[in-house]
Specification:
Layout: H1 7-22, E1 25-29, H2 35-44, E2 49-53, H3 76-83, E3 87-90, H4 96-101, E4 109-112, H5 117-126, E5 132-135, E6 147-151, H6 159-171, E7 178-182, H7 195-214
Parallel strand pairs: 1-2, 1-4, 2-3, 4-5, 5-7
Antiparallel strand pairs: 6-7
Helix pairs in contact: 2-7, 5-6
């Protein structure tokens, strides 16, 4: 029996499932507390090709929740690419203009882990809904047991998800895709965050992506 970094993944999904992961192409938008953990889980699970887009560099305030943030001042996407050769880093701000010019057709799964609502709406409208999953608000919360996965139209409690639904309808979007959200009431006004929640958001996104790929 072959023993390597993916041995336990082969045991879980079988050779066919692992081959699907190895040949898959995933795009993750956002390398923060949610997106970074999602990317790490995907890479550790054998996803063969991951494109990671984020504009930012690591700041000291990221260190409560973001992996590789000890490298203060470094480009986030580049730090992930140093660890995982399967990652193609793109350092850019994700705007509606960037989204309009980007080719999403080559990806098996597209994951939205960004915060900007305008960009999130543009992204949802640019991607095939069957290949799309998105994160809602992971900040301001402390209870990971309140995290849920549901259709974008079936979320509750989360103010970001409420605004997201409203803006989706306003944009004319009529499709359906899954999102990760929390039913815990926000505990503060500023973007306070706890890795016990943001990481679980990212891991849920990774799980949804792997299930889409393996079938």
């Amino acid at each position: 029996m072959q023993n390597d970094r993916f041995t336990r993944i082969r045991w879980l999904f079988g050779d066919d499932g692992f081959e699907k992961l190895q040949h898959s192409n995933v795009l993750v938008c956002g390398a923060g507390g949610v997106g970074g953990i999602c990317v790490d889980a995907l890479a550790r699970s054998g996803v063969g090709h991951i494109t990671l887009i984020d504009k930012d560099t690591f700041d000291v305030t990221n260190q409560n929740r973001q992996i590789y943030s000890e490298n203060t001042g470094s480009v986030k996407v580049d730090e992930f690419a140093k660890v995982y050769p399967c990652i193609t880093p793109i350092q850019t701000l994700i705007t509606p203009e960037f989204i309009a010019s980007f080719d999403f057709g080559k990806f098996d799964v597209v994951i939205d882990a960004i915060d900007d609502i305008t960009a999130k709406i543009a992204l949802a409208n640019a991607v095939d809904p069957s290949k799309f999953i998105a994160s809602m608000g992971g900040a301001k919360r402390v209870d990971p047991t309140k995290i849920k996965v549901a259709s974008v139209w079936k979320t509750s409690v989360d103010p970001l998800a409420r605004k997201y639904r409203y803006e989706l309808k306003k944009s004319g979007f009529s499709g359906k895709f899954d999102v990760v959200f929390s039913t815990e009431e926000p505990r503060c006004k500023p973007l306070g965050s706890f890795m016990g929640v943001t990481a679980c958001f990212g891991l849920n996104l990774a799980s949804l992506a792997v299930k889409k790929i393996v079938g």
